Amino acid sequence: MIDTSVREKYTAVIGLEVHAQLLTKTKIYNTDANAYGHSPNTNVSVITLGHPGTLPKLNKKVVEYAIKMGLACGCDISREQIFDRKNYFYPDLPKGYQLTQDRTPICMNGHVTVFPKNGEPRDITLNRIHIEEDAGKSIHLAGETDSLVDFNRAGVPLIEIVTEPAIRSSEEANSFLTEVRKLVRYLDICDGNMEEGSLRCDANISVMLKGSTTLGKKVEVKNMNSIRNVQRAIDHEIERQIAEIEKGNTIFSETRTFDAATGTTAGMRTKEELNDYRYFPDPDLSPLIVSEEWLKEIEATMPSLPNDLLAKYVKEFNLPEYDAQVLTDTKEIAAYFEALCGKTSNYKAASNWVMGPVKSYLNDSNENIEDLSVTPENLAEIIQLVDESKVSFSAASQRLFPAMLKGDGQSALATAESLGLIQDSDSDSIGELIDEVLAAFPDKVAAYRKGQKGLIGMFMGEVMKKSNGSADPKITNELLRNKLA
Amino acid sequence: MNIDKDLLNKIAHLARLEFDESTAEEMMADMTKILTWVEKLNELDTDNVEPLTTMSHEVNVLREDEVKPHLSHERALKNAPKKDSDYFRVPKVLE
């Protein structure tokens, strides 16, 4: 660990490259199934395998998904695009080149707002989003003289989201990935699973002295399979680079791989110091033109995005920022909350219910909110029963809600009735009970009137006892105070 | 443009091609000649000309996202120089 005072002399400059596999049915340039977990080399075709004379044909959905991501990030959408060949040799790349976009990325500029743990929300500027194909998977087994190659993944559509070197800390990088994952899931274009590799991240990291205008040499770090590990890798790499510089060594541009077990990075033994990809326009794919009309069509299919919902919950529903964050954390929870708020206008109660009993039930049961037997309609009924003082909140959360989770399809009112949870809010009958109680404790009544106001609790308890807990506490309290006055 | 020994070696490496060292001089001369000939194109003023990226006049040749029958597993592996029942086998590559 380096000293804090040394650490503080430096500032880190971080750029991220995020690859997201798109949830299309087929690959980007041919009709093989795009599926994870199938037997090796079963989702392949002559195009995937790069047989001579075969030609690619672009999947329309891929273009639409990439544009959706671009619109979600406020990017400029390129109206005229071509594809480029990135040339390199590796056994999992059968054609000897990757079909990607170099000169004309489908989306340019734009930003993603980050909410770092120990910092202010900030917009991270994007350089570009482009579309390209994934490579196959090479498997290197110990003791084997061969490497094994599975081409099922070859040709799976990817978008690559590239930030400007605008990220300043590992917390910001963490938040950036969290937000990107949230976006692709809201848009339903990628499942965002980093462990399975459908969302991957490489980080370009450099450090420089504070106030300097010359960027340090950047190091690319790969092989982080979770957001947490991206954060760890960045923290370690910043420390390592500062320590090297402090020792008088120079940092050179290289690719390093992260080891999750040790939390450190190590240089990769690459012979290819100078990678020369010799990009050039691909003549096989026709140019892509995005018309105003097509763009409008895609715009019309855009769902509500987490930050729009967040703003709505804070500004229109007057919910605390924290509530709004939790409620928009996943698309499914937000959809449930949206449906609920269509049925009740007590937004704060709706938020408390979703963040409290609903979420804790989901956590305990591992159920998905979409499968919850208490529908938004049911929950709105429960909220109404509480608002009308027909059922107390504690009875609603501890007995009515659990009973409805078992779900016999009954309305909240019917269930509350059959459980005997309906509170007596009839002031005449409560009034009679109060009269009985006051008559039974004349000395306590006198003491209360002399100033021992704390006795109100005792009276409340007695009335509740007499009503078997069904007296509405609010009304009881009010009536008691009136009668004792 | 002159092709020197370094550039020749670099091109050979990028193309993963081997050549007989004794022919290096001849190859450098040939490649220099070819490049010089192609460089003739530089004499044209192309400032206001969009680069030609395809020979076709078609744009937006797209397909719908529908799975179509593709290659069977057996046929896919058929021409591989080395394979097992599941995988293509290649000389071990280490990162």
Description:
The complex is a heterodimer of chains A (485) and B (95). Chain A is of the alpha+beta class. In chain A, 39% of the residues lie in helices and 19% in strands. In chain A, the strands form four sheets. In chain A, strands 1, 3, 7, 8, 9, 12, 13, 14, 15 and 16 form a ten-stranded mixed β-sheet that branches. In chain A, strands 6-5-17 form a three-stranded antiparallel β-sheet, with no helix packed on it. In chain A, helix 3 runs antiparallel to helix 4 (227-246), helix 7 crosses helix 9 (347-365) and helix 13 crosses helix 16. The model of chain A has no long low-confidence stretch (mean pLDDT 92). Chain B is mainly alpha-helical. Chain B has three helices and two strands; from the N terminus they run H-H-E-H-E. The interface between A and B is large, with 55 and 36 residues. Chain A: It catalyses: L-glutamyl-tRNA(Gln) + L-glutamine + ATP + H2O = L-glutaminyl-tRNA(Gln) + L-glutamate + ADP + phosphate + H(+); L-aspartyl-tRNA(Asn) + L-glutamine + ATP + H2O = L-asparaginyl-tRNA(Asn) + L-glutamate + ADP + phosphate + 2 H(+).
Biggest beta sheet summary of chain B:
none
Structural class of chain A: alpha+beta
Which overall shape of chain B is indicated by the principal axes computed on the Cα atoms? Answer: flat
**What number of domains of chain A?**
3
What structural category characterises the helix and strand content of chain B? mainly alpha
Low-confidence stretches of chain A: none
Largest interface: A-B, 55 and 36 residues
Order of helical and strand elements of chain B: HHEHE
